[in-house]
C-alpha cells in the first residue's frame, strides 16, 4: 500500500482516481491545487504524486518543480487533457522536469494502476485490476 496524493482541479476526476486507487488498496488523498498539495505534503510526504498539468492557482509544471526541489525522491505521474499548446507538449515538458510517467486524459484505470505499480517496490504493489475498463478524464 502506498500513500498517493491526487492533485486536480476537476472534482469528478479526483473522485474517480481516488475510487480506483483506493480499490487497489492504496491510501489516497485528493486536493484541488498544487500549492495546497505542497503544504499538505510537508506534514506527510506522499509516496506518489498524481498531478494534472493545467490548473488554476498553481499549475502542474510548477507543482512538479516544487516537489522535485522539496522531495527529490517522490515519484510523480503527470496527466493532462490538453490546452493551448496541446497535451503532448505539456506531458513532454513534465517528463523533462522530473515526472516519471505522463498520462494523456482520458486514460483507462488499468493505465493508472500500471503506472503506480511500476513506481513501487514489489512489496507495495497493488492488486490486479486488468478487468477494469473505466476511463478517467
Query: How would you characterize the largest beta sheet?
Result: 5 strands, parallel
Gyration radius from CA atoms, angstroms: 13 Å
Q: What is the helical fraction, as a range of percent?
A: 40-55%
- N-to-C SSE string, H for helix and E for strand: EHEHEHEHEEHE
Strand order in space, largest sheet? 2-1-3-4-5
Low-pLDDT ranges = 126-132
The first-to-last residue Cα distance is: 24 Å
Mean pLDDT: 88
Helix-and-strand structural type: alpha/beta
Shape: globular
Summarize the structure.
With 137 residues, the protein is α/β, with parallel strands linked by helices. The protein has helices spanning 11-23, 34-43, 60-70, 87-96, 109-119, and strands at residues 3-7, 27-31, 48-52, 75-80, 101-104, 107-108, 135-136. The longest helix has 13 residues, at 11-23.
Structure in words:
With 137 residues, the protein is of the alpha/beta class. The protein has a domain at 74-84 and 99-137. It is 40% helix and 21% strand. It has 5 helices and 7 strands. It has helices at residues 11-23, 34-43, 60-70, 87-96, 109-119, and strands at 3-7, 27-31, 48-52, 75-80, 101-104, 107-108, 135-136. The strands form 2 sheets. It has a 5-stranded parallel beta sheet with strand order 2-1-3-4-5, sandwiched between helices. A two-stranded antiparallel sheet has the order 6-7. β3, α3 and β4 (75-80) form a beta-alpha-beta unit. α2 (34-43) runs parallel beside α3. It is globular and about 30 Å long.
Core attributes:
alpha/beta, two-stranded antiparallel ribbon, 21% strand
Q: What's the layout of helices and strands?
A:
Blueprint: E1 3-7, H1 11-23, E2 27-31, H2 34-43, E3 48-52, H3 60-70, E4 75-80, H4 87-96, E5 101-104, E6 107-108, H5 109-119, E7 135-136
Parallel strand pairs: 1-2, 1-3, 3-4, 4-5
Antiparallel strand pairs: 6-7
Helix pairs in contact: 2-3
Amino acid at each position: 500500500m502506498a500513500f498517493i496524493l491526487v492533485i486536480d482541479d476537476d472534482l469528478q476526476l479526483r473522485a474517480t482516481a481516488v475510487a480506483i486507487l483506493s480499490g487497489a488498496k492504496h491510501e489516497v488523498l485528493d486536493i484541488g491545487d498544487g500549492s495546497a498539495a505542497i503544504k499538505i505534503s510537508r506534514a506527510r510526504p506522499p509516496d506518489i504524486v498524481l498531478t494534472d498539468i493545467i490548473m488554476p492557482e498553481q499549475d502542474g509544471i510548477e507543482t512538479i518543480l516544487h516537489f522535485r526541489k522539496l522531495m527529490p525522491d517522490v515519484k510523480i505521474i503527470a496527466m493532462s487533457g490538453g490546452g493551448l499548446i496541446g497535451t503532448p507538449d505539456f506531458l513532454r515538458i513534465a517528463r523533462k522536469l522530473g515526472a516519471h510517467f505522463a498520462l494523456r486524459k482520458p486514460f483507462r484505470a488499468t493505465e493508472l494502476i500500471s503506472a503506480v505499480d511500476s513506481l513501487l517496490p514489489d512489496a507495495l504493489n497493488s492488486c490486479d485490476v486488468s478487468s477494469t475498463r473505466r476511463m478517467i478524464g
